[in-house]
Amino acid sequence: MEIAAFLLSLICVTLNAQGRVLTWPFAIASSATYAWVFQDAKLFGDAALQLVFIGLAIYAWWCWSKKNVLDGHQTAKPFSKISRNPLIACLVAWVLLFLFLKWVLLNFTSSDVPNTDAFLTAGSLVATYMSAQKWLENWLVWAFVDLIYVGLYIYKDLYLTAVLYSLFIALCIWGWKHWSEQIQQQSSSSASV
Asked: For residue range 149-171, what is the model confidence (pLDDT) as tens digits?
């Protein structure tokens, strides 16, 4: 099951780095598969996170499929850099989600890593929301979270998943570069109009 989740997730993040809307159906499939894997590993925060990811993937699929009308032409929502207020809101959401998830994990599960699980789960939720908004900085959050996830999955003997998250870090760099180029192209084309 971990191999199937690995492959689906790798396809999903690769498509996301390319800025393709097809990333979201793969996100749903990989999240459903990883929910099973994480439940077996007693990573209850990560297992529950996968169910939330499914909901966020549906939301992101809708956001990325929605067309903006500009000068009578329909265009996809553009990639952009996050502004100050949404950034602050994302950081506050991360802290509040961490505190809530830590409380849930401590009081209702047998998690042996509640702090790490809650912190990474909260960060992953924020990063997914940022990706749905097509904010470039989602790649920085993902790279940070993925780096810590590598250590967690090694600790939990999920070596294939640790390799996957190592690959995700490389894809974060690629995604950052590709989305940055898209933002520059959007700026150039709007400046020439």
From this structure: 999 999 999 898 899 899 999 99
121 is written with which tokens?
């789960």
* Domain, as residue range, for 104: 2-68+80-188
In a domain, 193, yes or no: no
74 within a domain of the structure (yes/no): no
Task: Name which of 126, 162, 153, 157 is nearest 142 in CA terms.
Answer: 126
| CA pair distance 109, 114, nearest whole angstrom | 9
> How many domains does one find in the chain?
1
Q: State how far the Cα of 27 lies from the Cα of 35, in Å rounded to an integer.
A: 12
Spell out the alpha helix ranges (H) of 41-113.
44-65, 84-108
Higher-pLDDT residue of 2 and 86 is 86
Strands 73-76 and 67-70: antiparallel
Q: What is the 8-class DSSP label of residue 135?
A: B
Residue 75 within any structural domain of the chain: no
Q: What is the pLDDT of residues 19-58, one digit of tens each?
A: 999 999 999 999 999 999 988 887 776 788 799 889 999 9
Backbone angles phi, psi at 171, to 5 degrees: -65, -30
Inform me whether the pLDDT recorded for 99 exceeds 80: yes
- 93 within domain boundaries: yes
